Amino acid sequence: MAIALDNLRVGRTYEFTNLGENRRFQILARISSEDFRVKDLDTTEVYTIEELLRWGRGKDYDLDEWNPEE
After folding, report:
1. Is residue 70 part of a domain?
2. Given a cut of 80, is residue 67 above it in pLDDT?
3. What is d(CA 3, CA 21) in angstroms, rounded to the nearest whole number?
4. Which domain of life does the UniProt lineage start with (predicted)?
């Protein structure tokens, strides 16, 4: 079950699936009530959550905290 955007925390790492794309990112900063600056852990690119959700939420939408030790 996906967590809500307002439950994201700066410094934590999350795994995101939407429209067939899988991303792992770390939250760098909160820039508005529902937007965050994030760093992609695979590409080291910095972007915002809004950019990831710009095209909507697909049937496969999922957002969960990622813990590589599990």
Report:
1. no
2. yes
3. 17
4. Bacteria
The confidence band for 33, taking pLDDT boundaries of 50, 70 and 90, is: confident
For residues 35 and 50, give the distance between their C-alpha atoms in angstroms, rounded to a whole number: 6
Instruction: Give burial (CB, 10 Å; 0-12/13-18/19+) of 25.
Output: buried
Q: Which amino acid is at 13?
A: T
The reply to whether 46 falls in a domain is yes
Q: What residue numbers bound the domain in which 40 lies? A: 5-65
50 phi/psi in degrees, rounded to 5: -55, -40
Whether pTM > 0.85 for this model: the answer is yes
Count Cβ atoms within 10 A of the Cβ of residue 30 and give its class: 0-12 exposed, 13-18 middle, 19 or more buried: middle
Q: Is residue 37 part of a domain?
A: yes
Whole-number Å distance between alpha carbons of 19 and 10: 25
